[in-house]
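Pipeline run #58 for the internal structure catalog. This entry was flagged by the ingest filter as a single-chain record with no existing model, so it goes straight to prediction. Upstream metadata was stripped on purpose; only the residue string is passed forward. Reviewer on rotation: M.T. Logging verbosity set to normal.
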Amino acid sequence: MTEEQLFKTEERATRTEIAAALRDAADQIETGEVQLVSDTADQAVTLPETPRFEVELERLTDSETGDRRYELEYEVRWTK
């Protein structure tokens, strides 16, 4: 299987800003039409009625420094 990245953005944001972005995403997902926009890219996608939804929380530990990083991911996926 090959992977083609169609859109990606990553930035620091406050919890309030993240919550607002997730609420906007939830509204778009509910309609089935999602518009992804950043300073450098714009991508639209139509979601099927019943895609797969995954929530994942990971703790990663740097083997050299022992620093811990957490990742909370919400993923919606489907096949065409």
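catalog note: Residues 12 and 18 are 9 Å apart (CA to CA).
catalog note: The chain has a mean pLDDT of 96.
status: ready for reviewer M.T.
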